[in-house]
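Chapter summary example.
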Amino acid sequence: MHTVLLVIASQGYQPIEYSVPKGILQHSGIAVLTASNTDNKIATASDGTTTTVDKELKNVTPEDFDAIFFIGGPGALQHLDNATSYNLLKKTADANKPFGAICASVRILAKSGVITNKKVTGWNGDNKLTAILEKAGALFIRKPVVIDNTIVTAIGPESAQEFGAKILSILSK
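The structure predicted for these 173 residues follows.
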């Protein structure tokens, strides 16, 4: 059985981007762990709902999971755009494990250096994503969900269902 790690901000994660893929994966028998940048075991979504956090992000290693995906939302860049996230993504990529992100969290992938020469998508509501991805050496594809090998990226809540389905398809190979 596979274990997928979903990484959410302790404050302001996007609840649809988290709950929909999580439900798809769990319904298919995949174990889902939640990590965040908090040690209080509870994270709060942008709509005020909460979820239980299984692991503090700084204590996660690639041995803990088979794939890792960063969830977006207004708190993602404030709480997850840091060296801890970058190092975990680099170690995951080095271990050839599937990874990805949805919405604003695609920018974390870009800053971590793990999407060079990859096709990705993500939230571009501020029209800055093209420049961020170009600097990272990645190609911005304007589609709801993009898969490049075992990297899955998506634009936002409206693509959460497809994001979850594509993660499942990667793990089924």
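To summarize the output: The CA atoms of residues 15 and 59 lie 23 Å apart.
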